[in-house]
Amino acid sequence: MYIYNATDPPGGRLTPEHKIQLTGQRRGERGELDWSGVDLVLLCGYVAGHDVFVFWDAALHIDFSYSKNLQVRTANVQEAAASSVRVRQNRRLQTGMEVVICAPSKMVIEAIEERASSGEVRLRGGNHSARQGQPYTRPSGGGSATPRSRVFRFDPDAIDRGTNAHKKVQNQLADAVRKRGWEPLSPSDSDPLFDVGWTAANAAWIAEVKSLTPANEERQLRLGLGQVLSYAHLVDWGFEKNHPVLAVEREPSSAYWPDLCESHGVALSWPDVFGELLDACV
To answer: What's the distance, CA 276 to chain centroid?
Structure first.
């Protein structure tokens, strides 16, 4: 672990920020973090005034200049302190997309677990291990489960993601996965926008959720089938096999849909038969 005091000195950027400075090398020399013999390096700042820890993604800061600054918005530090929850900030770097995690001290263990599961792991020789999603985030009751910045303006799927039926089925599937002893996953920034993922029996399971009404059933099923085939193809978690799952609110009224999904290698499921779906995972 590399840990520094995170401060907010005057004269910084227009948007208030806390920062750490990566030191240890001589002036004029470039520095690097020591990854020898370890699977995880933690790069952390501590904000004493708010009792908040901030975790950057160490694998995205491999080689750095003398006294390099790493920033986080002060508003996110304050929110973590005031609400006692972890707060995340996305930063686009030349080395990749970074998720900075702010956590009050009482949640530092959970923050480290999240950093370990969702951060990029760097291996010597230029290889990278697969990043397997991030811990599942339950969609709230009052808004879309997908960040607005990642939704096309006229994406019809965004409307479904905001419905209570969609959120209920999504959480039911995630809860069922967790009861089996597996960790439900949400997409990381390098993943396509699936709804729930998990790993079991040396394979990845990638689920797209769809709510159904009599008026939109066919459209929703067609949309979901195309999406989940695409998502399962794009997810790269290091397994030889990705299993696509189309999870819907109820059994489709058209009898041909189970056969159609099966012919494309897609598991069609709904809450009443989630147990059968998860039995098939092993």
So the answer is: 26
Do residues 156 and 223 lie in contact, with contact meaning Cβ atoms separated by under 8 Å?
Answer: yes
Q: Using CA atoms, how far apart are residues 74 and 16, in angstroms rounded to an integer?
A: 6
Backbone angles phi, psi at 20, to 5 degrees: -120, 160
CB contact at 8 A, 210 and 247: yes
Q: How confident is the model at residue 191 (pLDDT cuts 50, 70, 90)?
A: confident
99: nearest Cα among 84, 81, 86, 110: 86
Question: Chain-centre distance of CA 72, in angstroms?
Answer: 19
Q: Which amino acid is at 82?
A: A
CA neighbor of 3 nearest in space, from 64, 68, 39, 56? 56
pTM as predicted? 0.52
pLDDT number for residue 142:
53
CA-CA distance, 238 to 241, in Å (whole number)? 9
What span, in angstroms and rounded, lies between the C-alpha atoms of 208 and 249? 11
Alpha-carbon gap, residue 7 to 270, rounded angstroms: 50
Contacts with 235 (C-beta within 8 Å, 6 or more apart), sequence order: 191, 192, 194, 197, 204, 206, 242
Token pair in block for residue 187: 């997409």
A 10 A CB-CB count for 110 gives: 14
CA dihedral 247, 129, 68, 32 (to 10 degrees): 170
Place of tokens 């038969």: 273
- What is the rounded radius of gyration, in angstroms, for the C-alpha atoms of the chain? 21
Which burial class, exposed, middle or buried, applies to 3 when counting CB atoms under 10 A from its CB (0-12, 13-18, 19+)? Answer: middle
CB 4 within 8 A of CB 46: yes
